[in-house]
Amino acid sequence: MAHIFLTGATSGIGKALCLQLLKDGHTVFGTGRSKEKLHALEEEAPGDFHPILMDLASFSSIKDALKTHEKTLSQIEILINNAGATSAKKIITEDGNEMQLQVNHLAVVYLTHWFYPLLKTNQGMVITTSSDAHRRTKFSKKALYDQTPYKIFKRYQETKLYNLMFMYYCDRVLGRDPVRFYAVHPGLVKTDLGAKNASWLVDKVWKLFSAPGQDPEGPVPTYLKLINERPSEYVYYAYERPNHHLPVVEEEEKQTLLMTHACEHLSISTFGVRE
Ligand SMILES: NC(=O)c1ccc[n+]([C@@H]2O[C@H](COP(=O)([O-])OP(=O)(O)OC[C@H]3O[C@@H](n4cnc5c(N)ncnc54)[C@H](OP(=O)(O)O)[C@@H]3O)[C@@H](O)[C@H]2O)c1
Fold first, then answer.
1. What letters, b where the CB count within 10 A reaches 16 and e where it falls short, cover 46-71?
2. If you take atom 47 of ligand 1, which residue's CA is the nearest one?
3. Labelling 171: which of 60, 112, 126, 202 has CA 20 to 30 A away?
4. Which whole number is the average pLDDT over 253-270?
5. What string of H, E and C letters represents the secondary structure of the chain?
6. Is 86 in the pocket of ligand 1 (CB under 6 A)?
7. Which CATH superfamily is domain 3-266 in?
8. Exposure of 13 by Cβ count < 10 A (0-12 exposed, 13-18 middle, 19+ buried)?
9. What is the pLDDT of residues 77-90, one digit of tens each?
């Protein structure tokens, strides 16, 4: 049984995954930004659950939580970067970043960087929830540096592209041993993702769009497959099978640009090496 760190455990896909992992006997350190939701999850959790309060839109919140729990987190073998957010209006975080960029991408890079030395020792893995929404965008340096007009869905698609490029970068640069890197497309899932920070119109569009989607439990078997089987050939999975991605995902020059931007914003001098 594994020790798993799962972000966004308080709703949607993350909650369904958290409950299944606990039922399967894993120890789960689940993060949330709401004390109340974490408490409710703790009450419902069937096994060894450790709630961690962490707002991914705040680097000080992330760093404080990691420091507070540092000792117990030393056993983590699997990091699941699942949390994600959208916003109808452009929100700038206390760290000066556009919110979707920070929550969906920069926080993922930071957590992966922080956990990497432990995952190396524990021969672990990283799974990041991306999306086939990445296919509907292009990689652009201007967008990465937030120099293009803000559009909710475009921004979301870009951050999901960054998730995928980041996992492929790690797979290429850090290698497949002892740590494996995966990305998951969960499919269309009926959650409140698009209804949070939403305008009336965005809320309506999301509800109509996601209505034919699966229940949050739908994508759970794909995560379990990666955890239980540790498949060795592919990085990107959906519906328990390898999945296709845009060619740009594996372009080394663009991956390097992505990582230069992230390391600048996170003050990381060598990715994967904690100072
Ligand atoms: N639903 C889909 O059709 C779909 C499709 C493709 C990919 N995805 C991806 O799947 C992942 C999970 O999304 P979901 O659909 O399950 O949505 P969800 O129900 O809204 O869950 C998102 C999770 O992220 C957490 N979160 C959001 N902002 C945060 C912040 N600032 N700090 C800490 N936690 C934060 C949420 O916390 P709260 O509970 O407090 O809101 C929640 O636990 C995301 O990465 C999303 O991009 C979803």
1. eeebbbbbbbbbbbebbeebbeebee
2. 84
3. 60
4. 97
5. CCEEEECCCCCHHHHHHHHHHHHCCCEEEEEECCHHHHHHHHHHCCCCEEEEECCCCCHHHHHHHHHHCHHHHCCCCEEEECCCCCCCCCCECCCCCEHHHHHHHHHHHHHHHHHHHHHHHCCCEEEEECCHHHHHCCCCHHHHCCCCCCCHHHHHHHHHHHHHHHHHHHHHHCCCCCCEEEEEECCCECCCHHHCCCCHHHHHHHHHHHCCCECCCCCHHHHHHHHHHCCCCCCEEECCEECCCCHHHHCHHHHHHHHHHHHHHHCCCCCCCCC
6. no
7. NAD(P)-binding Rossmann-like Domain (3.40.50.720)
8. buried
9. 999 999 999 999 99
pTM, two decimals, is 0.98
**Atom 42, ligand 1: residue with shortest CA distance:** 8
Question: What does the domain layout of the chain look like in residue ranges?
Answer: 3-266
Q: Is the CB of 14 under 6 A from ligand 1?
A: yes
β-pairing verdict for 241-242 and 236-238:
antiparallel
| pLDDT beyond 90 at 275 | no
Is pLDDT above 90 for 185? yes
Is the pLDDT at 43 greater than 90? The verdict is yes
Check the CA dihedral 210-212-215-217 and report its sign.
negative
Atom of ligand 1 nearest to the CA of 61: 32
Per-residue confidence band for 233, with pLDDT thresholds at 50, 70 and 90: confident
**Ligand 1 atom closest to 159 (CA):** 47
Is 53 near ligand 1, meaning CB less than 6 Å away? no
Query: CB of 92 within 8 A of CB of 98?
Result: yes
Distance CA 53, CA 42 (A): 12
